[in-house]
Amino acid sequence: MLERFSKKLQEMRLHSSKVVLALPALVVAVFFFVLAASNVHTQTYSLEKYSTAPETIRSPITIENEKKTEQQIREVTQSVDDRYSISEDITEERVSLVREVFEVIKETEHDAEEQSSTGEQLLKVESLLDEDITRGLPSGVYEPLLSAKVEDLKASEDFLVTTLHNYFQEGIRPARLDDAERRLKLKVQYSNLPDTLKQVTSDIGAFALVENALYDPQQTEEAIKAAATQVEPVMLRAGEVIVKQGSTITNDVYDDLQLTGLLDDQHNGLPFFGLALFSLLLGMMIYIESLRAVKESHLTLRHLTIAAFTSLFIIGLMKIFSLYGSADQPVHYLVPAVAGVFLIKILCHERLALVLAVVYALMACILFNGHLSGALNATAGMYLLLSQLAGIFFLTKMKDRLSIVRASAGVAFTNICALLFFLFMSFEKYSWTEVLLYCGYGFSAAFLAAVLTLGLLPFFETGFGVLSDQKLLTLANPNHPLLRKILTEAPGTYHHSVMVANLSESACEAIGANGLLARVAAYYHDLGKTVQPHYFIENQMGLKNPHDFIDPEKSAEIIINHPYDGARMLEDEKLPSEIVDIAKQHHGTTLLKFFYYQAKEQNERTLEKDYRYPGPKPQTKEAAVVCVCDSVEAAVRSLNHPTEEKIKAIVHSIIEDRLLDGQFDDSHLTFNEIKKLEHAICETLHGIFHSRIEYPETKPLVREAK
Q: Is the CA virtual torsion 589, 621, 472, 291 positive or negative?
């Protein structure tokens, strides 16, 4: 029953923690929704036809005006001419009739001596000619041909055949037949033919001319379809001016307003619903990453709160910049969004900074859309994403404040490259003045990001009590008052702390813990020894050991008190809680064996718990590492000739003792990490206590020189 209740209580706590972790993500999502609402809201107008526009109205969306598109298609198709196909059979048929006339004439002239009169010749011509020719031409028309010379007949025939071929190739439509006959007559009139043959040539040509271009319905339909497909849809582009201020609302303008939903009776709530879904999606991204980071002990609720406040600041900053932007002034190039990922990487975690960089870039697509519902500014999103990713990449190790400045220089270079890419890929042509101006925007954005980061970092560190790398570096300064206190009052302890710091940093880096935190905490972990420095062997320097003159119980009390005296002094100086905790936990609940066994010899009833540190046990990996390195350094320093085998043996024995004593139970160290920890400590100690050449003594050398 008790076990079931405990399990249920644990589930309730887990559920409660998930709800709490969702709050920062929810606040960011809601804040973005509120600020971006105006970017998707479409303002409507109460307007009537033929009234005056109160302001310049632009289209909020890109949409096709189907009515105007259909009108243009009708106009184009109506202007398409009928298509005709030219019949080659008709051409050859009519030309052959002309040739037949001249062949019959030649044949009749050849037999002219046997004929008694011209009338008989004409009768013979008609009898030899095709019926179509005799019906189309009167018999008297051939008389000039019968009396003409052979060469003139040849010239007339060639002239007619050539001319008819040309006209038929062009195609003779019904409406153009009369025009073709007139042209033929004029051409004959101005030809070199004999005057006696011009009329007969014209008559025969007019007879031969017929329609040979026949209407083709299939080609005509195809031409109409092809013309219709060439018509571009009439589009009303987002941002395009529908009507200018003071202009009359004509029928076409009113139709455009109605088409784009800008009239009062056309309210549309779908954009807000879409924005809500988008905001929820971004909030889910933040929430899922928060759960993962907290589960892996990378972040706490305090870090998520910092990320939320930073996000609110960056979103608000983007919204303010967007109010001053336009198509001619792309102010998104000036937005110092990199400051957000700088702060989050320094104060929280790099992966969270990457996730939020993507989130900010997606938000920028809407916030910089020029308040056009349905529009997205992909350029702004891409630019800010590249800029932020560059900031995360270039901000590596925070050795000093100049690290932020160096990272911002890399961001400036990235911004300028991205800007040049957008400008050169654009269809618009930019002057060199504009190119330099936009490059200045990119440089200014990086500069502003560095200024904001350097300015806001102390406020976040102080307000939220965050221990950043920058603050750790400040605390590592040897001129810090507390470190000066250790150096002057307990110089042996100071040297011991420096050695522990070196060991702790290398060991933490080997297991993926915060090496800088371990180093700085190791500097301060024995601050409590400054209360009574001479009771600790490293500070006695040849003096008599005061523990030889007091009871083991009193000696144990002095030794056991030093972690808590140090923690109290650190708290009084307002040092970060992480360093205070390591100072308090660096001995855990270990047993002070020397004085315990000494007291045990004097009194068999001596209790072990009286000679154990009150704890708590190390709660973090860094505290556990400092706990091990503190004992290892003291033990190795006590060796007369520390060889590699001795060092390995003593390190292994100390770690094994801490493990069996349960000192690592609360530190989240795994067995694999403990193995890596042991190896890293041994490697560092080998570098410190490496083999040295034994130099000969100075005195014999001096004597030999004499």
A: negative
Selected residue with higher pLDDT from 670 and 295: 670
Peptide bond into 616 cis (omega under 30): yes
Question: In this structure, what token pair is assigned to residue 666?
Answer: 């609360």
Look at residue 467 and tell me whether its pLDDT is greater than 70.
yes
What is the DSSP secondary-structure string of 82-93? Answer: PPEEE-HHHHHH
Q: Could you give the CA distance from residue 272 to residue 38 in angstroms, rounded to a whole number?
A: 10
CB 215, CB 28: distance < 8 Å: no
Give the three-state DSSP class for 324.
coil
List, for residues 3-56, the tens digit of each pLDDT value.
Answer: 343 344 344 444 446 778 889 999 999 999 999 988 886 666 677 787 888 777
C-beta of residue 474 within 8 angstroms of C-beta of residue 399: no
DSSP bridge partners of 45: 263
Residues 583/570, Cβ–Cβ less than 8 Å: yes
Distance CA(365)–CA(362), nearest Å, equals 5
Closest by CA to 420, choosing from 407, 430, 411, is 430
DSSP 188-237: HHTSSS-HHHHHHHHHHHHHH----EEE-HHHHHHHHHHHHHTPPP-EE-
DSSP state of 609: G
Instruction: Compute CA 290 distance to the chain's CA centroid, rounded to the nearest angstrom.
Output: 21
Rounded to an integer, what distance in angstroms lies between the CA atom of residue 240 and that of residue 286? 37
How many C-beta atoms surround the C-beta of residue 692 within 10 A? 6
Reference 669, options 607, 612, 626; nearest CA is: 626
Contact partners, residue 542, CB within 8 Å, separation at least 6? none
pLDDT reading at 294 higher than 90: no
Q: Enumerate the H helices of 114-149 as residue ranges.
A: 118-128, 131-136, 143-146
The answer to whether 445 touches 332, Cβ cutoff 8 Å, is no
**What's phi and psi for 386, nearest 5 deg?**
-60, -40
For 385, residues 6+ apart whose C-beta sits below 8 A from its C-beta are 357, 358, 361
Q: What is the pLDDT of residue 1?
A: 41
Q: Convert the pLDDT of each residue in 311-337 to its tens digit.
A: 999 999 999 998 887 655 788 899 999
Are 301 and 43 contacting, i.e. CB atoms less than 8 angstroms apart? no
Helix (H) or strand (E) holding 242, with range, is strand 241-243
Q: What is the 3-state secondary structure (H, E, C) of 468-510?
A: CHHHHHHHCCCCCHHHHHHHHHCHHHHHHHHHHHHHHHHHHHH
How many Å apart are CA 641 and CA 630, to the nearest integer? 20
Model-wide pTM > 0.70: no
Locus of tokens 């490259």: 417
Q: Is the pLDDT of residue 357 over 90?
A: yes
Helix (H) or strand (E) holding 561: helix 552-572
Among 103-117, 150-164, 443-457, which stretch is predicted with the lowest mean pLDDT?
A: 103-117
Task: Please check whether residue 599 is in contact with residue 552, taking contact to mean a CB–CB distance below 8 angstroms.
Answer: yes
Q: How far apart are CA 520 and CA 475, in angstroms?
A: 7
